[in-house]
From TrEMBL:
SUPFAM superfamilies: Cytochrome c oxidase subunit III-like. It comes from Pseudoalteromonas fenneropenaei. Residues 5-292 form the Heme-copper oxidase subunit III family profile domain. The lineage of its organism: Bacteria, Pseudomonadati, Pseudomonadota, Gammaproteobacteria, Alteromonadales. Keywords: Membrane, Translocase, Transmembrane, Transmembrane helix. CDD domains: Cyt_c_Oxidase_III. It is a multi-pass membrane protein. This is cytochrome-c oxidase. The chain crosses the membrane at residues 16-36, 48-69, 89-110, 160-179, 191-211, 231-253, 273-291. It is an enzyme of class 7 (translocase).
């Protein structure tokens, strides 16, 4: 690498946004936990902590995005900085892959090891007699140790529709990327806007699915290991879809303002990478959580 590229490497000033984001995530984590534990009680304050955390997070995102966009428009970023952005986004997506692998691992452990053992497999008949004599090894588990019952969420209906929506959004974001590389601004705005609408539609239908699960199927976070893994995997995925939609909205607004072009558009490319990652994770969820 030439000396000139080293000389033009931009080092931003110290930023308050990482610590602000950490505070926001702390409030969100504590507020979410308290909200779940207090959902059946009156007078719980957990939801207020959750709202405070979300407000701080939005404030942080707006401020941080504004700073980065301003630096980019001023031409402060060099080719070396662009490589740093690409490496950073690649490692971030890799960390998210490992994040979901841990949850898929918990699902497979419960299904392939814990449930068969409780059913007496691998010479564990005594374990079944001691822990749960009436237990039947099956998945999904529709009976909890406390005697509660639930129903499994089928793959037809809303889950299948949401799968089609996300697969379609993966196609539209690819069309938008092609339009970006060809400087076709009209097609770019249309396909990216359509991708955002599909993302919002997915989240709306997921909320309806959760309402259906709680009110009609009796499938809740208290529904044993099946309910825990179901909401853990689908809920975190929904959170990532929300984040991906926010990224796409920010990029779309920048494009409407005339930012980004065929030569410099890594902000769009990073959002597209993340969206494809979200789509692939959902395919795994649909197969292993809903179908099998």
């Amino acid at each position: 690498m030439s000396n000139s590229e080293y000389q033009h490497y931009y080092v931003p000033e110290q930023s308050p946004w990482p610590i602000v984001g950490a505070v926001a995530l702390f409030f969100i984590a504590v507020g979410s936990g308290l909200t779940v534990m207090q959902q059946a009680k009156e007078g719980g304050q957990g939801h207020w902590l959750l709202f405070i955390g979300l407000a701080i997070l939005i404030y942080m995102l707006v401020g941080w995005f504004r700073n980065v966009i301003s630096e980019s428009n001023q031409g402060l970023y060099s080719k070396q900085m662009d490589k740093s952005f690409r490496q950073g986004m690649s490692w971030f997506i890799f960390s998210e892959v490992m994040f979901f692998m841990a949850f898929f691992g918990a699902l497979f452990y419960a299904r392939m090891i814990s449930v068969p053992w409780l059913g007496g497999a691998s010479n564990n008949a005594m374990t079944q007699e001691v822990l749960w004599p009436t237990f039947t090894a099956m998945w999904p588990l529709v009976t909890t140790p406390a005697g509660g019952t639930t129903q499994a969420m089928g793959w037809e209906g809303l889950p299948l529709i949401n799968t089609i929506i996300l697969l379609t959004s993966s196609v539209t974001i690819s069309f938008a990327h092609s339009a970006m590389e060809k400087d076709q601004r009209g097609r770019l705005k249309a396909f990216l806007g359509l991708t955002i609408l599909l993302g919002v539609s997915f989240l709306t239908l997921q909320v309806e699915e959760y309402i259906h699960a709680y009110q009609e199927l009796g499938l809740t976070l208290q529904s044993g290991v099946y309910g825990n893994t179901f909401f853990m995997l689908t809920g975190f995925h929904g959170l990532h879809v929300t984040l991906g939609t926010i990224l796409l909205v920010v990029v779309w607004l920048r494009i409407l303002k005339g930012h980004l072009d065929s030569k410099q558009h890594f902000a769009f490319q990073a959002a597209a990478w993340y969206w494809h990652f979200v789509d692939v994770v959902w395919l795994g969820l649909f197969v292993f959580v809903y179908v099998l």
